[in-house]
Design the sequence.
């Protein structure tokens, strides 16, 4: 950008009327119920950073800004039953100040032609992976993309011939099924088994499903929606079976930064088996870490040049200037913000666990290890309201979709139906927990009141 434009960033912000600059926190606080009312005007402010602490408690109202999490569900509830968007995987927190600052600075240069280079972005990606995950990646082996989707679809097209299949350990991110469909291939699920309060891989089933038409295995680490952070021995074991069967591992690690305090993330590409690693590609982005999904920025890499070349043949993506600016700022200056956000969400998970166990005894809870999702088991409530018997006559795709609707009508809370996550999702609903804790508490109270009355 033009550094000689005489722009003084601070004075620009003052002159532009950013009177709610750091310090004016009190006037910005809105109560949860006010924030959740549709149509309430969003809080427009410059992000706060007081005494070294970022503020995740003050509700940041996203409604009314064409926001998928808060503005999409109410379209199905025109009578106003919808109150809480706990579905789509984005955070409700005001973003890291360094991101807004960088964008504001770039916006002062009034020209939007093609970008010259994305080298700085790649170099920050390499640095982040080295510093955060102790994973040594060669910059020349990183391909930038505008989302995990385009890279994954290219990999599926590259490795899976027509009539071939992708193997998925489910319940798993619904997008994998959409990607497979875009790549014109089939999927097969190997269901995780709930054992001693943790979702575990059923290795016997997984290997049985590795038939000759299966060409890729999708690993989701951490697993969305169950929250598993896969351990080194688990990844090694699945990596070795996949290799024996000539199946390429596609490891989606988009949630790799959102890890609970007592867990450790293991990148697939850092496993201590070179052959296993060279049989894989990893897909990642910093978009879950910093809530940058709308900035369309992601990457994939492999430690095998041959694998990478094969996928690159089927992939093409261009990044937007503002996306690059925002992502570089997050990588470079966002660490402190994220560490605090992650610790906050860790405490929110604990709060939810205690609440569900104490106040919603009929709802099954499995402790989350990573991601900002929690996967709750509402099978008992669903049975009580006859969801299985009712859903078809109500024009719903599955019993879980019927329950989604029931929950909105009875509590205002919108959750994602477990059935969209493949086998193992029956009776479950996914809840996004990345909100201010006062909102999460309102959501829990509303759900408990609905569930406990049936
Ligand atoms: C596991 C997983 N992969 C990929 C995505 C989507 O990634 P992108 O928006 O970069 O395509 C999501 C979004 O929720 C996700 O949870």
Sequence:
């Amino acid at each position: 950008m033009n550094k000689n434009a005489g722009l003084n960033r601070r004075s620009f912000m003052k002159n532009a009327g950013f009177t709610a600059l750091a310090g004016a926190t009190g006037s910005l606080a809105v109560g949860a119920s006010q924030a959740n009312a549709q149509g309430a005007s969003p809080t427009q402010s410059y992000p706060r950073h007081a005494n070294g602490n970022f503020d995740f408690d003050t509700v940041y109202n996203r409604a009314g800004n064409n926001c998928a999490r808060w503005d999409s569900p109410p379209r199905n509830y025109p009578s106003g039953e919808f109150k809480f968007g706990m579905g789509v995987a984005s955070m409700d927190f005001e973003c890291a100040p360094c991101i807004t600052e960088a964008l504001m600075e770039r916006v002062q240069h009034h020209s939007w032609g093609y970008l010259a280079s994305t080298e700085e972005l790649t170099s920050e990606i390499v640095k982040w992976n080295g510093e955060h995950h102790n994973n040594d990646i060669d910059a020349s082996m990183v391909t930038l993309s505008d989302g995990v989707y385009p890279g994954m679809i290219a990999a599926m097209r590259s490795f899976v011939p027509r009539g071939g299949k992708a193997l998925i350990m489910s319940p798993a991110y619904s997008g994998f099924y959409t990607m497979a469909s875009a790549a014109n291939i089939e999927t097969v699920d190997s269901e995780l088994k709930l054992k001693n309060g943790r979702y575990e891989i059923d290795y016997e089933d997984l290997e049985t499903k590795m038939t000759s038409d299966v060409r890729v295995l999708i690993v989701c680490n951490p697993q969305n929606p169950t929250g598993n952070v896969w351990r080194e021995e688990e990844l090694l074991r699945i990596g070795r079976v996949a290799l024996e069967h000539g199946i390429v591992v596609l490891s989606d690690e988009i949630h790799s930064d959102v890890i609970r305090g007592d867990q450790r993330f293991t990148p697939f590409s850092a496993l201590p088996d070179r052959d296993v690693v060279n049989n894989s590609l990893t897909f990642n982005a910093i978009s879950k870490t910093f809530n940058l999904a709308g900035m369309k920025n992601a990457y994939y890499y492999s430690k095998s040049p041959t694998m990478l070349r094969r996928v690159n043949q089927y992939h093409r993506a261009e990044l937007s200037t503002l996306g690059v600016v925002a992502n570089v700022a997050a990588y470079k200056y966002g660490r402190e913000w994220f560490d605090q956000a992650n610790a906050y969400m860790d405490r929110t998970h604990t709060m939810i666990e205690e609440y569900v166990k104490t106040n919603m005894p009929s709802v099954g809870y499995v402790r989350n290890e990573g991601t900002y999702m929690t996967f709750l088991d509402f099978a008992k409530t669903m049975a009580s309201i006859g969801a299985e018997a009712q859903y078809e006559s109500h024009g719903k795709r599955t019993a879980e979709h019927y329950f989604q609707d029931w929950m909105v009508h009875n509590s205002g809370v919108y959750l994602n139906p477990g059935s969209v996550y493949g086998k193992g999702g029956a009776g479950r609903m996914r809840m996004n927990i990345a909100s201010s804790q006062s909102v999460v508490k309102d959501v829990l109270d509303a759900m408990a009141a609905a569930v406990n009355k049936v």
